Amino acid sequence: MITALLLCTGWAVQVHAEGRARGAITYASPQQALAALRAQPSISERQENDWIVLYDPAGPVFWSVTTPANGWHPSIVRRELVAEDGQVAMQMSVKCGVSTPDCDALAQSFQASDERLRQRADVQTQAAQSLAAEDASDEPTAAEIGENARIREAIFSGEAGGLKLADYPVAKVYRGPAAALDMSTREARMFKTRMSAALKDGKVEFAGEYTVAGWGCGTSCFSQTFISLRTGKPLPQSLGGELGPNIVRIDPHSALVVAEGSEYDSNYDRTGHYAYFYVLEGHTLKLLRKVAVPETLGED
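Given the sequence above, the corresponding structure tokens read:
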């Protein structure tokens, strides 16, 4: 269950009486929020891409504060795990300083993450109860980790059911100067800093002329897209995000993208974990094949 307590734009805050008691964001700016939260010794902090994430174990409460490089800056998101009727629920407040459509997109980007945090809390509670009654360890053995790595490598390399990078060559690799960012898309305008920096680096990483740009989209969320160094135009699709597959392999001399991710049903229950093989056709990534792949063992 996810309860949205507050969504406001342009820093014109109107808080209901119920919200004042619990969950309202009273800080006037990201800078004020960071100063106040950092003054509390119990709160831990880390930076995830264009977000500063602070964790207060007393709630527990998760604070996500934009940095100036973030396309949603200046914005603050507060999320708290609470118990309601014997179940774990997530209450979220958003204080947003960009346009209404962009604020809506910000709130939506956190919804899947909120649900996953809530489900993780449920799972952790159940797991703790189960482990208390068990003596045996479920940690994978070295042999199991090695076999898992072998299977994954065989799929990603195209040796076992997948496709090979070498089978989708490009005619040549662009060696000219990097173009300026094409600002005609909403994503380019929102993430101008990240995309422009990727173009400035001038590194061809994919399909003969594309570089990769990435940006944060919430807690434990990272999106990536490809931008042509020749034209400055981003591809219309991005990979990663809350539920999208993440890039595993690309090559400057190949038009093939290998990605990995899970699929979920409408209840956010995972239905499978897959390797995805896309090929660049014109200005679009086309999915050619999807192959079931085991998740990595031996990593937290």
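The chain has two domains: 2-127, 145-292. Try to locate this feature in the token string yourself.
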